[in-house]
Design a protein that fits this description.
It is built from five helices and twelve strands. The chain has helices spanning 34-49, 68-85, 94-101, 143-149, 178-187, and strands at 2-6, 11-18, 21-29, 58-62, 89-92, 106-116, 119-128, 132-134, 139-142, 157-161, 171-172, 191-192. The chain is globular, with a radius of gyration of 17 Å.
Length: 205
């Protein structure tokens, strides 16, 4: 059974997957810092299911970009589980997974998420209808500037998280990425060494 953790936004996502079946999925709005919430939630989930954490055979986690604190906490928990249970660790990146969710769209895709400080984390992709490929580096753009420039992307499929670009054609990403991220990390074989996995921060610390 795999555990997948997503803490990149205000949504805490926890998913337990056994083969092709979702055993348990939790997606809640953050009501307190994830550092105070995630461990207690994991503990209550296993108690509710009558399972021991030792049943976990692997763990996947979102490495960002996203909330600085959220990403750090999620990776810390995932690495601890990987170390203590001696199980493989996989990772996924926020923009890659969101773009991949819309891979059946043929054309250019723009992913923009709220990065705090009135800025957006943006990356462009191209989809052939089967696979997606990043065609730009990550960019940090002022949200006000992005709103002014969004019409330049009229031929793109635009997906945003917590920005409110005020354009009817823009898709608002609402869910956490725990399940989609797990599927992506396994499909793309994103296995990590717990010693070296670090959060993906776009700003210098």
């Amino acid at each position: 059974m795999f555990l997948s953790i997503d803490t990149y936004s205000e949504n805490l996502g926890i998913c337990l997957i056994n083969g092709s079946s979702v055993v348990y999925r939790l997606s809640i709005q953050k009501v307190k810092p994830f550092s105070e919430l995630i461990v207690s939630k994991l503990d209550s989930i296993f108690k509710e299911l009558g399972l021991s954490p030792e049943i976990i055979s692997g763990v996947s986690v979102n490495r960002g970009p996203g909330s600085y604190t959220g990403i750090r906490v999620g990776i810390s928990v995932a690495k601890t589980l990987s170390y203590s249970l001696q199980i493989p660790l996989y990772s996924f990146e926020t923009h890659d997974v969101i773009a991949y969710k819309y891979r059946h769209y043929k054309g250019n895709i723009l992913i923009a998420i709220n990065g705090g400080q009135k800025e957006a984390y943006v990356r462009e992709y191209f989809s052939d209808g089967i696979e997606t490929k990043a065609v730009s580096d990550y960019k940090i753009i002022k949200i006000k500037e992005l709103r002014e420039k969004i019409k330049e992307f009229k031929d793109y499929l635009v997906i945003e998280k917590n920005i409110d670009l005020s354009v009817s054609s823009v898709i608002k990403e609402m869910e956490d990425l725990s399940l989609d991220g797990f599927n992506y990390s396994i499909r793309k074989k994103r296995k990590e060494d717990p010693l070296f996995l670090e959060p993906l921060y776009l700003r210098s610390l």
